[in-house]
Amino acid sequence: MRPTRTLRAAACAAALLLAAACDSSGSGGSSAGGLNPPDLKAPTKLGRTEGQVNLIAWAGYVEDGSNDPKVNWVTDFEKQTGCQVHSKVAASSDEMVKLMKTGEYDAVSASGDASLRLIASGDAAPVNTALVPHYKDIFSGLKNGPWNSVKGRMYGIPHGRGANLLMYNTQKVRPAPTSWSAVFDGAPAHKGHVTAYDSPIYIADAALYLRATKPELKIKDPYALDQKQFDAAVALLKQQNANVGEYWSDYLKEVSAFKSGDSVVGTTWQVIAGLAASEGAKVKTLVPKEGSTGWSDTWMVSSKAKHPNCAYKWLDWIVSPKVNAQVAEYFGEAPANSKACAETSDKNFCTVYHAADESYWKKIAFWNTPIEQCLDGRTDVKCVPYAKWVQAWTEIKG
Amino acid sequence: MTTDVTTAAGRGTVRRLAGSLHRRPRLRLALLLTAPLLWLTVLYLGSLAVLFVSAFWTTDSFTSQVVKVWSTDNFHELLTTPVFRQVVLRSVGVALAVTVLCALIAFPVAFYTARVARPRWRPLLVVAILTPLWASYLVKVYAWRLILSEGGLADWALAPFGLSGPGFGLAATVLTLTYLWLPYMILPIHTALEQLPDNLLDASADLGARAGRTFRSVVLPMVLPSVAAGSVFTFSLSLGDYITVQIVGGKTQLVGNLVYSNIELNLPMAAALGLVPVLVIVLYLLAIRRTGALNSL
């Protein structure tokens, strides 16, 4: 196992130094190495609430009881703050980015593959964490991550996190896998029954595996791949494709595939594993020895927010222990607030989701947006930007 | 009193308006056609034109913002990238396979409902054929997912013969699409067969033709335009579908999936890809027109 977190921290520090150097030389653009977002100001104090707030969120993050009368953390917020909540559910990170550009929304629950884009384009403003009282209780592992902060400035409030786990059918896959090789080099053993997450970001999973198995490629960060490293990851995924039964993006589809045995090994989320097991599928999950990729969502405030005070109230509300516990349990992720674990209805919840287990999260490389300026701090090469990842993903699927 | 006056005045205006309309047939025609023509040109053709134009734009690689700079890069990429060619060919292949299968299955069914079944049963049979169209598309496709999954109905039914179901993939996609669009093929054939005059069949028999010959020389030529008409539905609906293939297609990609995966990040590329089925269908319609089927639609 590699000291991922340390490496990433070092990489970040390098990027920050570089960005600082760019600053002092007075160049304002984002073209020269490192991310150099537009200089936006965070508010220093809050004013009166505006009476409403417009949110973009993942399904299950802003529940007002209309889907399930028992699942409701919006009504109390509205009562306490007088901010009427209007929420729009987005189906993908790309849609979130697009909606934020309209300037009609005040805040968004962005994943790492969207947040950096929002920061760079100036659509998301830095957040003054002092105005969010519950921020102090957030797990330190989620603060100042490379996906939610630039130059030590937070651009949002962490909401929760989850790992992309390896799930396998305990009856069909023997012996129990310990490595991602079960879906890569060892995949032919389960030809036609391997599954993978259907998104370009899955290329990072292959890069993560190569980081451990092909040291000569010198991959440091699975989201910062130069052309050679990228090609190697794509070649690995093309090999894998021959053994894949289906890719999943809809999680109910994966649950049904593992239940019926159409899929026996592949990536998953904890919530899917729990659901499949509760419906009778014989499955187990693990973080393989190479570590794994994962996601961490951040509530960000729009730089064009018309209701910033209500937006800040929402940021604080959604990470308050009780609400954060509710969201985490409903959605199936590890809560961001350290005090949320005391509030969950299932007392075992935080253990299952490793909420407080920082050594567990050290093994996770959280989703980030691949950009041309290598995120690992290298300046002698150009990295492959996300748009190219999208094209490659189409080619991998053939 | 006042209301009487106003209604009388109102009636007067209506009458004068009616009179002037009566005297100007061109105005009448213009008023009648403006709304549908606007719909057709502005909304329908207009959106197609926007689609076409945006296919020539590009995007900023980092922010995915559309950059309105004229270039033919997307079309160049479309024609030179092997994966695009492969997917387009696969999509056309699927659409053709679905159409052929639908025609093969629909013909005997329509023959039974239109000519063999007792007349009083016929309307009921037509209703029975139409009922699946009332059920939700997604429910039907997920039902097929269950049928085709490992150990599902297909595996169970084929097990006694030592076979197993096709599993998820291209075959499953063709099968499910065939099921979905079959009614659109049966109905036009049913109508054509129903309208086939009995005396033509009698005449054929009188002239000594056996059933096979009558079918080839009399029935088929008269029904073929309807088959072609039905095929317009099955072909175009299959070519545009991207949901069925996501649910039962395993890892298969069709043109619709490529459009869908590009729409957020690279709208111009999605537009260029979206023009492919439009072009294919236009070509298909031109080919069908030669059979005269469009006249009987």
Automatic annotation (TrEMBL), chain A:
Q: Which GO terms describe its cellular component?
A: periplasmic space
- Where is it mainly found? periplasm
| Signal peptide, first to last residue | 1-32
Q: Give a GO biological-process term.
A: polyamine transport
UniProt keyword terms in alphabetical order: Periplasm, Signal, Transport
Q: Which domain of life is it from?
A: Bacteria
InterPro entries named in the record:
SBP, Sperm_putr-bd
Q: Name one GO molecular function term.
A: polyamine binding
Q: Where in the cell is it found?
A: Periplasm
Q: Which PANTHER family match?
A: BIFUNCTIONAL POLYHYDROXYBUTYRATE SYNTHASE _ ABC TRANSPORTER PERIPLASMIC BINDING PROTEIN-RELATED, SPERMIDINE/PUTRESCINE-BINDING PERIPLASMIC PROTEIN
Q: How is this protein named in the record?
A: Spermidine/putrescine ABC transporter substrate-binding protein
List the source organism.
Streptomyces bungoensis
UniProtKB/TrEMBL annotation, chain B:
Q: Kindly give the InterPro entries that the UniProt entry links to this protein.
A: MetI-like, MetI-like_sf
* Species this chain originates from: Streptomyces bungoensis
Q: What is this protein called?
A: Spermidine/putrescine ABC transporter permease
Q: Where are the transmembrane segments?
A: 29-57, 87-112, 124-144, 156-182, 218-245, 265-287
- Localization of this protein: Cell membrane
For this protein, the record's PANTHER family field holds: INNER MEMBRANE ABC TRANSPORTER PERMEASE PROTEIN YDCU-RELATED, INNER MEMBRANE ABC TRANSPORTER PERMEASE PROTEIN YDCU-RELATED-RELATED
Which superkingdom?
A: Bacteria
Entry annotated with the keyword Transport: yes
| Classification via Gene3D superfamilies | MetI-like
**To which protein family does this belong?**
Belongs to the binding-protein-dependent transport system permease family. CysTW subfamily.
One GO BP annotation is: transmembrane transport
